[in-house]
Write a structure and sequence with these properties.
Elements lengths: L1 H22 L1 H18 L1 H5 L1 E7 L2 E6 L2 H22 L6 E4 L1
Length: about 100
């Protein structure tokens, strides 16, 4: 009986993953994870002075407390994008917009 439950759970998980992939829900879930992983991506110091505002359609929108932190993000932009995409295991972010 236990094996049957595992098979049913596996089948349900497979159906959900297929549905999420076909509808774009999996990308939405990954985009929604970015604020949660931001500190791990950029480090505590930068995270304290920046905030993720939005992430969608390949763009990550953040705000910074000052032009100094804006410059820091610009310098690290490529690395930040690579870290986010590697963490999410998908090439979702192509650009960072700083406001």
């Amino acid at each position: 009986m236990k094996g049957l439950k595992n098979d049913n759970a596996s089948t349900l998980r497979s159906i959900f993953n297929q549905f999420a992939s076909q509808t774009g829900l999996d990308d939405k879930m990954k985009y929604s994870m970015i604020p949660e992983i931001w500190k791990d991506i950029v480090g505590e110091k930068i995270a304290l002075h920046t905030k993720v505002v939005n992430a969608d359609y390949g763009k990550l929108v953040i705000t910074t407390e000052s032009s100094t932190w804006r410059a820091e993000i610009i310098l690290r932009k490529k690395s930040i994008i690579e870290k986010i995409n590697n963490t999410l295991e998908k090439e979702l972010i192509t650009d960072i917009i700083i406001k």
